[in-house]
Structure formats: structure tokens, C-alpha cells
Amino acid sequence: MDIRSYRAVFDLERRIYRIDRLRLNPSGVPVRGVIYFLLIFVLLAVLRSMPLLSLPLRLLPWYLSEIALPGLSAALLASVRLDGRPFHAAAWSTLAYAAGPRQLRGADGRRCPAQGGSWRPSELMLLPDGSDAQMRALRYTGPGAVLISAPHHLASSPHRWGSGLMRVPHLTVSSLTRDTLQRRKLVVLRAGARLEVIRS
């Protein structure tokens, strides 16, 4: 006899040996088998209420469809062991495996995307902190405020969109040498105003 784990030695199956003064078979009736019997009995009762599925059950005598069939099925399921596990545990793990993903990723076992699919990152915002050797080329559209701390030259472009009060300015910032002394400048942009940094 192969013992796969010590749990199999101490995991004793609960059985019913006697009901009041009525003694059952010497080996007893497993409690799991009684539960299987009740579940199968309820399942057959539900099937009898369905018009098409109840036809095979109506052909059988009542003592076969209500007593013998649930009893034999429960005895068979109670005696079946799949990899050392009872039927309900093995069936549940099989259903969970069939419904689960085939490919996992990460330590937490997350579901992998479907084959052939593509992953695209969300939009990223890059905020230069001015620690680079030179200014980065970028384009920003208001509303908002921009603090320029590096030596720069700020100019307003003659290109404007719209007419009259609807004209939107276009500001251009170009970098200067580090030796140029210039204070920080805060540029406030209204809605639609565009600020463009040009690398020199």
C-alpha cells in the first residue's frame, strides 16, 4: 500500500454504522455517500420537471429512478478516488482548471493577454527638471503656467491663429549659454496658447 502523505493516514473518513437500533453493513455508510445520494436525488427531481429530459426517467419504474439510481450513483461516486482525492474535490479542481487561463505571468499568476494581441502603455507625461545640460525640445498648450529657470530667450511668434479677440499667441523659448545671467521667469498661458521650446 502506497502512502503519499501522512494526511492520508490521519484523515479518517466519517461513516454511519447504526441508525438508532438499525445496524447497517459492517463497513458502515460513508457520510459523503449520503450527501451524494441527496444531491443526485434533487438533481433527478429537477430533471423530471423538464419536458424533454424527463422522458427517459418516466420509462423507468419509480423504485429504480428514485431509489436504485441515486443509491448506485452515490455508492460509485463515494468509492471513486482520483489521485487520492474524493470525487467532488477532483471534479471541482478539474472544472477550475478547464475554466482557468492556460498561460500565467508574474508571481501572482495573472492572466496573460490573448496570443496575437498587443500591449500599449498609457500616455506618459514628461516633466524636465532642468538638470540636463541643455533644454529639451517640447510643445505645451495652455491653460497653465511654465516656470523657466534656465538661461533662455523668450519671443512671441508672428504666427497667430484666429482673428480679433480669438487670436491665440504662440511663444517660442530658445536656450542661451550657461554664462548668461537671467532670472527665473514664470509664463502664464491662457487656454489654447502654445509654448514651444527649441533646442539650439
Supply database-style keywords.
200 residues; 2 domains; 5 helices
Indicate the proportion of strand residues. Answer: 15-25%
| Main sheet: strand order | 7-12-10-9
Strand-and-helix sequence, N→C?
HEEEEHHHHEEEEEEEE
Distance between the termini: 84 Å
Task: Characterise the protein shown here.
This protein has 200 residues and is α+β, with helices and mostly antiparallel strands. The protein folds into two domains: 7-102, no CATH class; 138-198, no CATH class. Helices cover 29% and strands 21% of the residues. The protein is built from five helices and twelve strands. The protein has helices at residues 7-10, 31-48, 55-59, 62-79, 87-99; strands at residues 15-16, 18-19, 22-23, 29-30, 104-105, 110-111, 138-141, 144-148, 152-156, 170-175, 185-189, 194-198. The strands form five sheets. A four-stranded mixed β-sheet has the order 7-12-10-9, with no helix packed on it. Strands 1-4 form a two-stranded antiparallel ribbon. Strand 5 and strand 6 (110-111) form a beta hairpin. Helix 2 crosses helix 4 (62-79). The termini are far apart. The model has no long low-confidence stretch (mean pLDDT 76).
